[in-house]
Known about the structure:
mainly beta; 41-stranded mixed sheet; 10 helices; 12% helix
Amino acid sequence: MIRKVLLAAALAAVLALAALFLPLDFLRPEVARAMERSLGRKVDIGHVHVSLFGIPGLTLDDAVIHEDPRAGIEPFAYVPSLSAGIRVLSLFRRHLDLSSLNLGDATINLVKSASGTWNFQMLLEQASHNGTALPEIKIRGGRVNFKFADTKSVFFFDDADLNVSPYGRGSVELRFWGAPSRTDRPARDFGHLFVRGNWSPAAKGAPPRLDLRVELERSGLDEVSRLIDPRGFGLHGIVSFEAELGGPPTALQVAGALHIEDVHRWDRLPRPGRWTLPFQGALDLILQRLQLATVAESPDTPLALEFRVSNFLSAPQWDASARLNQAPLAALVEIARHMGAPISDQITADGSVSGDVGYTENNGFEGRLELQDASLRLPEAEPLRASSTEVSLGGGALYFQSSVEIGPKQNAEIEGSYAFAAPRDFDVRISTRGLNVRDMRSFGLTGIPLLEQTSQGSWRGWARYRAGDWSGEYDLQNARIAVEGLADPVRIQSASVRLNGKRTIVNRLSARVGGIAFTGDYQWTPDAPRPHHFHIAIANADAAELARIVAPTLERERGFFARTLGLAPAPLPQWLKTRRADGDISIDALSIAGAAIHLDHARLLWDGGFARLTGLDAHWIGDDAPGATISGDLEIGLEDRAPHFKLDGKISGVPYKGGQIDFEGAMEAEGLGTEFLETARAQGRLRARSIALAPDAEFRSAAACFEMLGSPNGPLWKFGSVEAASGADLYTGSGVSQPDGKLLLDLNRGGRPVRFVSTLTPAQQ
Length: 765
C-alpha cells in the first residue's frame, strides 16, 4: 500500500515537472477568455505553461493584448513572456479567473482617444462593467509610450516599473516609477519620477477620484528643462520636487514644493544652499492642462513663478512668468552667464532686481525690470554704480538704459541691447562728458581703439560697441601712450578720434614725445597693406634727441658674450616684424651739429625690418648754407643689430671755399653716432662753382667723380676724372685727401703737370 502511495506521489511529481516544460496549449482558449474578461479587450496567446512554484499560475508565450477599438488599432502591449497568477477558488468553480499579470519588460501604450477618454479609463470601466475583478498588473524595466489617437508623442518613460493593484469595489492602488524621456533627445541626465496613489471609481453621481503623490528625484536642471523645450536654457544646477494631487481627473488640485540646488550665486538668497519654492495649482488629465504658481511665504519673497502648459504630452504649448521683488542681482547675473550671456567670470555684482518677466515659446522673453542700487565690479577696476537702471525685454532681446557712476565724481550714460538668439549680439553705447581712460576697464568690454593703449588721460564723447567692433566720436586729452620702438611714451595734449568699425581716425592731434612736439593726424585701417597711416608736422627738433627717441627701433644691443663671440643679433621683435606704416613727415627746423635743416617733405614706407624715406626734400636754413638743398630716397635696414642706411639722392648748393658744390650719388653707413661716421662710404659725381682752393688755384667751375670712406680720423676722399676751368685754362686729373686733412690735386694743364695743395675743410684753411 505504501509502495502504491509513493509511486503515485512520484508520478504526480514527474507530471508536475513535465508540465513546467511541455506546452499545455489545450488551456489556451480558456486562459485567453479569462484575460479578455479581466482586461476588457481581445487577447492572443502562443504557448501555455503551468507554474507550480509560489502562487499557482501560468506562463504565456507571445501574448498580444489588443487595444480597445475606441482607442485605436495598435495593440496595448506585446509581451514575449507573460506570467499570470490564478485565483485558486476559481478552479473549484470551473471558471478560470486571473489574480495577477506580470508583463515583465513589456512596452505599453497609454492612448487618449479622439473622444478625450484614456485607454486606462476604458480598462477600469470595462472590468467594473463585466463584474470581474481586475487582476494585479506589473511591469518591470519596461517602456510606457503615449499616443493621441494615431499620433505617438515624443514623450515616453524608460526603465519603467508599474504596479496596478485592485482593491475594494473598483478601486485601484497605483505605484509607478520611470525615467522621463524624449525620442528626440538620446542623452539624459535626470532621475526617476515616482508616483504612488489610488483610483476610486465614480459613485452616487460623483466623478471618479484620483489621489497621487508624485516625486522627482534629484536631476540635472538643464536636462529637465529640455523635457519641456528641447532647446534648453543653459541652466546649471540640481532640481527635485514632490507634489500631492487629488480630485477628479479633469480637476486635480496640486500642492507641492520645488527644490533647486547648486545654481551658482543663489547662495545669496535668504536660504543658502537649497532653494525651496512651494507651489500649488490644477491639472486636467483629459485636456492635458497644467497650471502652477509658487506660494509666497511672505510679501517680501524675492521670487514668484507661474507656469502654464497645455497638450503637455502631445504638442506642448507653454508659458511661464516670474515676479521679482528685490531679488539678488548676483544670482540673476550668474544665471544669465550660464545661459550664454557674454559676462566675464571675474565680474561681481551687487544690488537687487524687481519687476515682471514672462516667457512663451513663440515670443520668447517679455517684461520690464528695474535694477536698484546696482553695482558691477571687475578686479582692480572701479565699480560701476547705478541707483536705478531700466531693463525691458521683448522681440528676442534685452534693452537697458542707465546713468552710472565710475569712481569719484565721474559718470557716463549707457544704453544698449542683448539678443538672446545666436549669434547673441551685444550692443552698448557709452556717452560721457569726462571719464578717465583707465576706468574704461570697469565696463568689461574689449578695449576702445586708442584708449586701450592709453595708460592715463581722459576722454569725452561717445563710443558704441556692437558685434565686436567699436564706433564713435570722442576727444582725448592729457593722454599718455607707450609706443613700442620709442624710448619715451607719446603724450597727447589733445586729439579728436572717430571710430568706424575697424577703422580709427585721429584728427587735430597735438602731442610730444621726449623733447619733440608735433601735430598731425593718424589713421588705423587693419585690413590695409600698411595699417598705420599718418601725417606729422614738427616745429623744432634736435637730431640727437630724435636719435635717442627712435634708438630702440634703430639699434638692438647685444650682451657681452654675444659681442665677444660675434654671435648674430637677436631676431626681430614681434612688434617690429608686424609693423606696416605709410606716412608723411615735415620738420620746420632740424638741428644737426649746429646747422639747421628744413624738411619740407618725406614719405615714410615701413614694412617690418625695412623702412624707406622717399621723396625726401629739405633745405638748409640760416646764414651758414643759404640755398643748400637735399633730395632723394633714404633706405633703413633694421634686420641687424645696428641700422643700415643707404641714401640715393642729390645735395645741391653746399657752400665751400667761396663757392658751391653739388653732389649726386649714393651713400651707405651703419650704426649711429661715431659708428655711422666711421662706416660711411659714398660715391658719385660732383660739380663745383667758383671754388678757391688756394690763392693760386681759383676755379670757375669743376666736375669730378668721387669716392668717400669713413675712418676714425675723418672721411677720406678720392677724386677722379677731374675737369676744372680757371680763366681760359682747362685742368684735368685726379685728387686724394691725406690723413692730416690736406687735399692733393694732381692735374694736367696743356700737357704740363700741376699739383695743387689745399685743406679739405674750410676751417683748416
